[in-house]
Design a protein that fits this description.
Elements: H1 30-39, E1 56-57, E2 77-82, E3 89-94, E4 99-103, H2 118-124, E5 142-147, E6 150-160, E7 165-170, E8 175-181, E9 191-193, E10 208-211, E11 234-240, E12 246-252, E13 259-261, E14 267-272, H3 281-284, E15 289-296, H4 297-305, E16 319-321, E17 335-341, E18 345-349, E19 355-359, E20 366-370, H5 371-378, E21 389-391, E22 399-404, E23 409-414, E24 419-424, H6 425-433, E25 441-446, E26 451-456, E27 468-473, E28 489-495, E29 502-509, E30 516-520, E31 546-550, E32 553-561, E33 564-565, E34 569-573, E35 577-584, E36 593-597, E37 602-606, E38 611-617, E39 622-627, E40 640-646
The structure holds (dicuprio-$l^{3}-sulfanyl)-sulfanyl-copper, dinuclear copper ion and calcium ion.
The site of calcium ion has 9 residues, from loops.
Length: 647
């Protein structure tokens, strides 16, 4: 076997681990290493390995032929996936797992010219000298805009944990059209759009996007309190969905990890693993309970309207105080902290809107919080916020994220167990109330290996359809042909239509596949050819092609139409600042041209009817070929022009 991974030691395989290809040698090595730190502080898990709670399926494929998307046939779903520290967003077909598109966002992409064209630089943001402010990012969570509780195919949002930005993608073009930097936060991780207005029931679509912040920092972070963590704190942020401006922020106790919103628009929820405000691992794991923090949106906005806000540093964004100390009375409180064991991860809302589910991470449990009870706590009808928890089933080790099938079942990823566990929410509630016959766990399936996010088809909408669950695994180990020390990551698609889960297939993903949403294909409406009028700088006809000089600034206007550019030669003088504006006059779908200048580091594309521009300094004398970089025509190689720089 040429694919055998020689350096894995067979002796490390625990006796209980199957050694067929469903698990290979993984459990012997990586699980123990990766799990070692997390296992610390784990409380006992009765259910794990308990046959009464359902034993794991072998992980063998179901009749995956049934799910094959034959050549020329189209997928039924889109998967919109964040790409981790690659900084982009990706689109896969489901069930095929085919990569359909990579959307550059916080990264640079020479294929489309992202970070090279003036239009993309303006979206990314530039320094006074015109260079990019940031060239890297770390995307974690992608969510779509909502109307009436389901996707409306207008926008996607994605976070950048590294440089604390929120990006928007317009779904008709599947391109990033806006990026907003959030002031006074670090570790912007969880993000979720609202699903309707908290006060005006007539507004039943997304108008706000909520952003958590994982790391507490000095406030203001200008050199003060560098080593006084007791003075540091985190801000929760609301961004306007249309203008993309930061509307307001809330000072909170502890940190903020993942985010979710209620279907009534009234609540944003964030799991907190560091209520201790610890700066090192031991401190962050010291409390038995951390929390799910609920933000009362209407009350926050009323407080801001009433002027009960302050500002921080040079930021003009109004900030209100949502700490426990500042909110002693639930009836007026801006926030509710529901205690959850232990360093919880993930918070997801059931499609009926009734429950928020957070996973224990260091506790083998999922905690079910009832939405109605949170409202009652805010009304002063419940004293102890812990009473909002209506179930806490033991589901397995290292639970992280939960998807729903719309039929009352939840599917949670178990990082340490390398499994997906299916459990019934109603049974979990019955068990919590004392029903000893209730068995929440319905089924388990092995995944390969160590899943982070898992998500179901339409599962974050009221149209959850219970067809597919996709497991985003953090390790692929030996599932694919070896390609050197950096492994491909593994995503595994699971059929959840039956009582037992069935693995359909693995597909690879370039690191790191993080979170995603699965959207029904008929929901998504794209435009396959652009409208020239949407580009204000369009060169409307080839007759408008020209070179204009204004001192040292030279503006070049040209068009492309297969297989030629409208100018055979672009002549400038050494030291000129050159702006080239190119409009593609081809109208045929898929007829994209590229524009590259030899030795000038210029490379971008124009899709049919689109216009893009680049600005650069003519700093090398000589003749440099301009050529079309994107295969467009039988005479693609002949599609050239010349850039002449006179000394
Ligand atoms: S968090 S693996 Cu960045 Cu999405 Cu849970
Ligand atoms: Cu135009 Cu290749
Ligand atoms: Ca903690």
């Amino acid at each position: 076997m040429t694919t055998d991974n020689k350096n894995t030691d067979d002796k490390n395989v625990p006796e209980s681990a199957p050694t067929d290809e469903t698990r290979r040698k993984f459990l012997g090595a990586t699980a123990l290493l990766a799990g070692g730190g997390m296992a610390m502080g784990l409380v006992g898990c009765k259910n794990s390995g308990d046959s009464a709670s359902g034993s794991a399926s072998s992980g063998q494929s179901a009749a995956h032929g049934k799910f094959e998307v034959a050549p020329g046939k189209l997928d039924d779903y889109y998967i919109f996936s964040s790409a981790g520290h690659n900084g982009e967003v990706r689109i896969y077909g489901c069930p095929s797992g085919r990569t359909l598109k990579r959307i550059p966002v916080f990264n640079l992409d020479p294929m489309v010219g992202w970070g090279i064209t003036n239009e993309s630089k303006k979206i990314i943001g530039t320094k006074p000298d015109g260079s990019l402010k940031y060239t890297t990012g770390d995307t974690h969570h992608v969510h779509g805009s909502y109307t009436d509780g389901t996707y409306d195919s207008k926008y996607l949002w994605v976070n950048d944990k590294l440089n604390n930005r929120l990006a928007r993608i317009r779904m008709d073009r599947m391109e990033c059209d806006a990026i907003t930097e959030i002031p006074n936060v670090q570790g912007f991780h969880g993000m979720f759009p609202d699903k309707r207005d908290p006060v005006d029931p007539a507004i039943n679509h997304t108008t706000r996007v909520f952003c958590g912040a994982e790391f507490h920092t000095p406030q203001v972070n200008d050199g003060r309190d560098l080593r006084n963590p007791e003075k540091w704190f985190c801000l929760f942020t609301c961004i306007d969905a249309e203008s993309m401006e930061v509307r307001w922020q809330v000072k909170v106790d502890g940190n903020m990890d993942l985010c979710a919103t209620s279907y009534d628009g009234k609540l944003a929820a964030i799991n907190q693993y560091n209520t201790e405000n610890g700066s090192v691992l031991g401190e962050m794991m010291s409390a038995e309970h951390d929390a799910v923090l609920f933000i009362n949106i209407a009350r926050v906005e009323a407080a801001i309207k009433a002027g009960k806000s302050f500002t921080s540093g040079s930021s003009k964004v109004p900030v209100v105080d949502g700490t426990k100390k500042a909110n002693p009375d639930p009836k007026t409180s801006l926030t509710c902290y529901v205690p959850i064991p232990k360093n919880p991860h993930g918070v997801n809302v059931s499609p009926d809107g009734k429950y928020f589910v957070a996973s224990g991470k260091l506790s083998p449990t999922a905690s079910v919080v009832e939405t109605e009870l949170v409202h009652k706590w805010f009304a002063g009808e419940i004293k102890d916020a812990r009473e909002c928890v209506v179930a806490e089933p033991e589901i397995g080790l290292g639970p992280l994220h939960t998807g729903f099938d719309g039929k009352g079942n939840a599917y949670t990823t178990l990082f340490l167990d390398s499994q997906i566990v299916k459990w019934n929410v109603a049974a979990a509630i019955a068990q919590f109330k004392g029903d000893k016959t209730a068995q929440p766990v319905v089924d388990r399936i092995d995944v390969h290996y160590q899943p982070g996010h898992g998500y179901t088809s339409m599962g974050e909408t009221k149209e959850a359809d219970g067809k597919y669950f996709n497991s985003g695994n953090k390790f692929s180990k030996d599932r694919f042909l070896p390609v050197g020390p950096l492994h491909s990551e593994a995503e595994q698609l699971i059929d959840i239509t039956g009582n037992k889960m069935q693995l359909i297939h693995d597909h690879t993903a370039y690191p790191e596949p993080h979170d995603a949403i699965i959207v029904r294909a008929d929901v998504v409406k794209t435009r396959q050819v652009s409208d020239m009028n949407d580009f204000p700088n369009a060169v409307k006809s080839s007759g408008d092609s020209r070179i204009e000089r204004n001192g040292k600034k030279v503006n070049v206007y040209l068009t492309s139409e297969a297989p030629a550019f409208s100018l055979d030669e672009i002549a400038v003088k050494l030291g000129d600042e050159v702006t080239i504006t190119l409009t593609n006059h081809d109208k045929v779908e898929d007829l994209t041209h590229g524009f590259g200048i030899e030795r000038y580091n210029i490379n971008f594309i124009v899709n049919p009817q689109e216009t893009h521009s680049v600005t650069f300094k003519a700093d090398k004398p000589g003749m440099f070929w301009i050529y079309c970089t994107h295969f467009c025509h039988a005479l693609h190689l002949e599609m050239r022009s010349r850039f002449i720089v006179e000394a």
